[in-house]
Amino acid sequence: MNFLSHYYFERANPDSNMVIGTVLPDLVKNAHKDWNFYPQKKEELFVADNSLKSILKGWKRHLEVDVLFHSSDFFNHHTAQLKQNILPILKDSPVRPSFLAHIGVELLLDHLLVINRKIEINSFYDHLNNVDDSKLALFLTRCDAAETDHFFKFLTSFKSSRYLLSYQKLENISYALQRICMRLWTHPFAEDTILLLTERLEIYKVILEKDYLEIFDEIGLKLH
């Protein structure tokens, strides 16, 4: 799941440290694609400090949600269906249809949460701004992050741009997908392919919207 879908499960949580923890694995990967941290395997480094403990709790929640989502019938069904939907427009693209369908379903879920007002994006950013950077830096250091300056430069930009507000428009989902694909392929799409992708996403959004909340309800019932 993507940022806003993870936030959905914490939308009523007043603990900003836990909220940022639920999206921190993705923030870390966006800032440093080669960073691989496993703080859940050394909990003793975090539990003595309440802020670090909350961040770790959020981190573990992120992992739990992703496992439940990616093993669900909902995920398997909709990624397979979206893959078939977008296959005709990818014949001249190096992008793997299964990869694009996977990320596409996740971003469509974020989009649907926003347009149907199931979450408040500005509240999400308020939580991020409430977190003490020194505590976050300490958490990352205890994860063996050798250099955190680049991460905080990315985080500052992520917060100030309020980029996720753009998810209100479907065409921005297509450009977000292009940027994600550019991490793996230098030229993932031609400009006309992006327009066609938006059209396909618009078609599939109507299908997904019929039952998209079911996966959030299903996961919510299983969370510890």
TrEMBL record:
Q: Which domain of life is it from?
A: Bacteria
**Pfam families attached to this UniProt entry:** ACP_PD
Q: Which InterPro entries match?
A: ACP_PD (IPR007431)
- Protein name per its UniProtKB record: Acyl carrier protein phosphodiesterase
The processes (GO biological process) annotated in the record are: fatty acid biosynthetic process
**GO MF term set:** [acyl-carrier-protein] phosphodiesterase activity
What is the species listed in this Swiss-Prot or TrEMBL entry? Pedobacter insulae
